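Hello,

Our lab assistant flagged a job as stuck in the queue for most of the afternoon. It eventually completed. Since we weren't sure the result was trustworthy after the delay, we are filing this so someone can double-check. Below is the sequence as submitted and the structure that was eventually returned. Let us know if re-running is recommended.
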Amino acid sequence: MSRLVLFAIDLVAVTLLVFGLYFPRHRRRDLVVAYLGVNVGVLAVAGSLSSSSVGAGLGLGLFGVLSIIRLRSTELDQHEVAYYFSALALGILGPLSGGPFWIGPSLMALILVVMYVGDHPRLLRGYQRQVMVLDSAIVDRTALIGHLERVLGARVHSATVERIDLVNETTVVEVRYSHAHAPVRVFR
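-- returned structure --
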């Protein structure tokens, strides 16, 4: 199969990833261009390197370094990092056809399915995480958990105190919790 067909399959896959999965779920316009740019950039460089005498490992290593620098320059949530690396992987799979034709498109489809399921809004929807600022300084862990459960009306799974201010009487805490009435079902 020609490389142009694999490039086209990659472009369809990244379009589905960005406009079919990521943007409808998270609505962050600034990352749309990042995901598309990373994918097409990796696609172009990997396509060029796959037919040149320069090793593909060198080019992919450079993209790895660039992606780490980019990820450190702005705060991204974990799901956004997953989309970022999915876009990278799709771009790498496009031009590198080292085996039978079906392997590249199958791996692209696998990435899309994993992202669809893993980031589905109904997957474990009763479980949440948030950072809370409490209007009291609570130093006792048991009292803190009890207070959080009363305020949230939920079961607290973990509470990580980020800051206790005894002067201003505040506690900043990251809480992971689930609502008691939330079903255990994965999808509904």
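-- support follow-up --
The delay was a queue issue, not a problem with the job. The result is valid. The longest helix spans residues 3-26. The chain has a mean pLDDT of 79.
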